[in-house]
C-alpha cells in the first residue's frame, strides 16, 4: 500500500466510475483496476462492489474514504509546515542583545523581519557585554547583537552598524553641547562606567578614549548595563560615556553630548548553524540602516 494507491481510491470513491477516474489521473482503466485489486488484497477485505453497470463502496470502503481523506489532509498540512520550516518561513530564533540595541535599531529590525516572516517566533534575552559569547556557546541564544566581535573559533561575527559615543550628564550639569570642547575638561568628575579592568572590546574602546584625553576616570560605581548607568547619572552619582543610541531613552533629567569616538555593534552566531530562519534574520540585519 502506498499514498498513490490511497489517492487513486479516494478519487474513484468520489466518481464511482473507473473510466472517468482513470482518465483524470491519467492511468489506463486496467492499471487503475490492478491498483485497487492490490490495495484490497493487502487490506484483506473489499473496498468496492463492482457490477457491469456501477461501482459502489462497501461499508469498509465508506469508512476508509472518510478516514483516509482526513489523514491525507493532515499529512498535506505536515508537509506544508515542513516546507515552511526548511525555507525559514516558520520556526523560532533566540536573540541575545545588549540593552542599547533595544533603543531603536533592534525594534526596527524585528518589525521589518516579522512583517516578512510573520510565522517566526522571536525570543529575546538581554545579555551583559562582559559575558556576550557565553549564551551562544551554551545554546541559550542563536544570534547575538552586541559590541564584541567573535573571539571563539566556533563563532562568526560581522559589524552591522557603527555609532558615536556620547558624554551623558545630568540635566543640571555645567557641560553644554554648544560650548563643549574636550572630555579632558571633566577629568575631576566622578564617572559611572563598566569596570575598565575588563577585557571586552567595548571596555578597550573606553580605555583608549580616556587615554586619548590624558586621564584615567575616577568613580565609585560600576555597571555593565547601560540603562542602569543612565539611572545612576540621572540620580547625580556621576557622568558617563555611552553609545549615542541611549539618547533615545525616555528617562528624564539627562543630556547627551556627542563625542568623536565611535563604537560598533556586531551580529554574532555559531559557525555551524545552518538555520534558514537565522539566515533570513542576518540578511535583514545587513539591510537595516543604523538610524
UniProtKB/TrEMBL annotation:
Organism of origin: Hymenobacter chitinivorans DSM 11115
UniProt lineage: Bacteria, Pseudomonadati, Bacteroidota, Cytophagia, Cytophagales
Coiled coil segments of this chain: none
One Gene Ontology molecular-function label: DNA-binding transcription factor activity
Pfam family, one: HTH_1
Keywords, alphabetical: DNA-binding, Transcription, Transcription regulation
Keyword NADP recorded: no
Domain HTH lysR-type: 1-58
InterPro entries membership: LysR_HTH_N (IPR000847), LysR_subst-bd (IPR005119), WH-like_DNA-bd_sf (IPR036388), WH_DNA-bd_sf (IPR036390)
Membrane spanning stretches: none
Family assignment from sequence similarity: Belongs to the LysR transcriptional regulatory family.
Name listed for the protein in its UniProt record: DNA-binding transcriptional LysR family regulator
GO cellular component, one term: protein-DNA complex
Amino acid at each position: 500500500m502506498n499514498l498513490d494507491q490511497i489517492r487513486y481510491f479516494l478519487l474513484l470513491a468520489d466518481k464511482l466510475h473507473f473510466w472517468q477516474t482513470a482518465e483524470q489521473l491519467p492511468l489506463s482503466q486496467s492499471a487503475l483496476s490492478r491498483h485497487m485489486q492490490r490495495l484490497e488484497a493487502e487490506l484483506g477485505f473489499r473496498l468496492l462492489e463492482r457490477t457491469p453497470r456501477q461501482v459502489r463502496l462497501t461499508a469498509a470502503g465508506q469508512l476508509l474514504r472518510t478516514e483516509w481523506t482526513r489523514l491525507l489532509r493532515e499529512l498535506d498540512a505536515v508537509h506544508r509546515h515542513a516546507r515552511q520550516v526548511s525555507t525559514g518561513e516558520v520556526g523560532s530564533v533566540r536573540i541575545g542583545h545588549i540593552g542599547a540595541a533595544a533603543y531603536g535599531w533592534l525594534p526596527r529590525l524585528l518589525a521589518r523581519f516579522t512583517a516578512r516572516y510573520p510565522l517566526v517566533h522571536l525570543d529575546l534575552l538581554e545579555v551583559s557585554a562582559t559575558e556576550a559569547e557565553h549564551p551562544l556557546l551554551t545554546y541559550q541564544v542563536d544570534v547575538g547583537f552586541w559590541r564584541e566581535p567573535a573571539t571563539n573559533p566556533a563563532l562568526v561575527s560581522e559589524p552591522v552598524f557603527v555609532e558615536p559615543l556620547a558624554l551623558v550628564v545630568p540635566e543640571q550639569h555645567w557641560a553644554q553641547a554648544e560650548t563643549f570642547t574636550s572630555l579632558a575638561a571633566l577629568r575631576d568628575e566622578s564617572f559611572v562606567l563598566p569596570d575598565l579592568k575588563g577585557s571586552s572590546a567595548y571596555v578597550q574602546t573606553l580605555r583608549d578614549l580616556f587615554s586619548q584625553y590624558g586621564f584615567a576616570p575616577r568613580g565609585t560605581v560600576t555597571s555593565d548595563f547601560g540603562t542602569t548607568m543612565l539611572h545612576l547619572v540621572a540620580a547625580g552619582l556621576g557622568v558617563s560615556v555611552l553609545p549615542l543610541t541611549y539618547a533615545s531613552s525616555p528617562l528624564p533629567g539627562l543630556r547627551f553630548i556627542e563625542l568623536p569616538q565611535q563604537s560598533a555593534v556586531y551580529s554574532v552566531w555559531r559557525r555551524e548553524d545552518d538555520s534558514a530562519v537565522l539566515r533570513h534574520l542576518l540578511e535583514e540585519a545587513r539591510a537595516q540602516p543604523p538610524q
